Amino acid sequence: MSEQRHTLEVRQVSKTFRDPVTVPVLKEVSLEVKRGEFVSITGKSGCGKSTLLYILSTMDTDYKGEVVIDGEPTKGLSGTRLAAIRNEKIGFVFQFHYLLPEFSVLRNVMLPGLKLARKSSAEVESDAMRRLTELGMADQALKMANQLSGGQKQRVAIARALINDPLIIMGDEPTGNLDKKNSETVFEIFQHIAQEHKRSLLIVTHDTDFAARTDRNIEMEDGRVLNHGG
Amino acid sequence: MRLLISIAITILRAKLKQSIVAAVGVTFSITMFVALLGFMNGLNDMLDGLILNRTPHIRLYNELKATPEQPIAQRFDDRAVVHHFIRSVKPKSEPQRLRNAAAITRALEDDPRVLAVSPRLVAQVFFNVGTTDLNGQVSGVDVEQEVRYYMFSDYLVEGRASDLATGNNTIVLGKGLADMMAARVGDVVQVTTASGDRALLRVSGLFQSGIADFDKVQCYASIKTVQELLGQPRSYLTDLNVKLKDIEQAPAMARELAARFDADAVDIQTANAQFETGTQVRTTISYAVGVVLLIVAGFGIYNILNMLIYEKLDTIAILKAAGFSGGDVRRIFLSLSLIIGVVGAAAGALFGFAMQRLIDQLPFVTEALPTVTTFPVDYNPKYYLIAVTFALLTTWIAGWFPARKAAQIDPVEIIRGK
Questions:
Q1: Global pTM?
Q2: Which tens digit of pLDDT belongs to each residue from B250-299?
Q3: B231 and B130 share a domain?
Q4: Could you tell me which of A60, A34, A158, A54 has the C-alpha nearest to residue A105?
Q5: How far is it, in rounded angstroms, from Cα B216 to Cα B207?
Q6: How many Cβ contacts (< 8 angstroms) between chains A and B?
Q7: Domain that holds residue B179
Q8: What is the pLDDT of residues A159-197, one digit of tens each?
Q9: Is the Cβ pair A102, B11 closer than 8 Å?
Q10: Hey, what CATH topology would domain A35-58+84-227 get?
Q11: What's the angle, vertex CA A165, arms to CA A164 and CA A166, rounded to 5?
Q12: What is the domain partition of chain A in residue ranges?
């Protein structure tokens, strides 16, 4: 892979909500994220930053423009192919942890790896344990997901996002629901991922302190990029 | 796929109560289906057996009847313009024998379609009881053949079939007839034939067919005994009863035999058409009830899965975000439904069998059916197969719609909606 190749490129992405009246939420947004870059997106509520993130995540396919992930244009790909891209190349961390309550912590972390099926389930399990150990959660591995505290859940969600060694981690307010101490832990984990593992991060956040400490902060307003940062 | 099934099982475990309720619906419907059809068909077989076991597939005989063409008509050409009014020439007095019975028997025994040919000789008699005479009919039979092909010993309530075969001048009386004569096994009864000959016969057994009118008239003796009773030679026979390998061929073959041997032939379908109809109606009703039960169970599964999907919206969204495609999600919920179906069906088959065993134990004693002591049940595996197949089909369809809905859920809406 060439150094110049961007992990993520967004060209002229526009989106309108049609219900009940036509409201443009994104107006020709273009940006790119380089390999190993820790990027945050900030902006007021309703500026379209979350909408943009979900378009980049390939889960929302109703938009104009082009999204290229690791050199592959995603426009017009089948749902199955997009799911495979998400599985392999994108890791997600949400504001509301979203662990599967029916599964143990370990199993939650393993699921995307089992889905990718590139490794045996024993290998996936040892990977998952390693990730949990890195995040200081090894002793909680066999608990059920709903027995954990908020900060713990978020760390498990990060471990899950990392299990397939994705090119980019996307986060929608990952610290939005955490106290100062836990936010700090999550930030450090992200920074570590970007610096040590050379993974890109794209984090939507309200937290200006958090944003200020990232490599680059993209500011958005009214569906446009105000400032590309850096 | 294994991963998807393991996810389905985990979700099922988390919602054990609903899953069990859904599975119990399937179990219940299969139990009832299997029990109902087994019971219905057991009854059908028993009722049919009442007649069909004892009825030959084809009966060859010689009926006493007027000639279709009066003799005077044969004197004139068809085209001749004549009107003849002699129309009452009666059949001539001729024994009701089947001509050339020995040769017909040999020919039929060589026919590959034929299972067995049993000769019969039927005689109308009077039983002299004190000062009154009772009407009766003695059938001379080949006892071994009757036991083998017409379940003769099943209907003997007293005495043994072998006694009839070996003893000379012995008779088996119908239960009703014996009661009227106050005759018991070992007694001697006096018989008068239509031509006025008298004979004494020893009662060697009693039989009960379950049809009261029949039992008041019908008696059995060996062919030799009846021939002697009538004063007829050893070749004298009135009927040939034919049992075929395939009962469905009976009507066609009856026509063929009638033409070939210049005799009258009646097949079982024609003689007992009402039984076929009754059986069909009962079977149709039981299938209809069974299928309705299964469909109702299907609706149960549909409802429960729909609810499950609403409760599991978060799970579905997160699976999709983590890279599970819509197809994967659909397969998860479809497997979930099929697991409920398979578990429910397996339990249903088991309970159905238990239910059949239970029905089989229930006492069912009736005068009409001497050999039956409990309710009859048909344990045919066919019903299990139909029930399980249909149950899986129903659960598949019931699961398919909710599963498709789950597949179409937009994860963004769920994740952002919080």
A1: 0.72
A2: 888 888 888 888 888 888 877 777 777 877 888 888 888 888 888 888 88
A3: yes
A4: A158
A5: 10
A6: 75
A7: 58-66+93-271
A8: 999 899 899 999 988 888 788 888 888 899 899 888 888
A9: yes
A10: Rossmann fold (3.40.50)
A11: 90
A12: 35-58+84-227
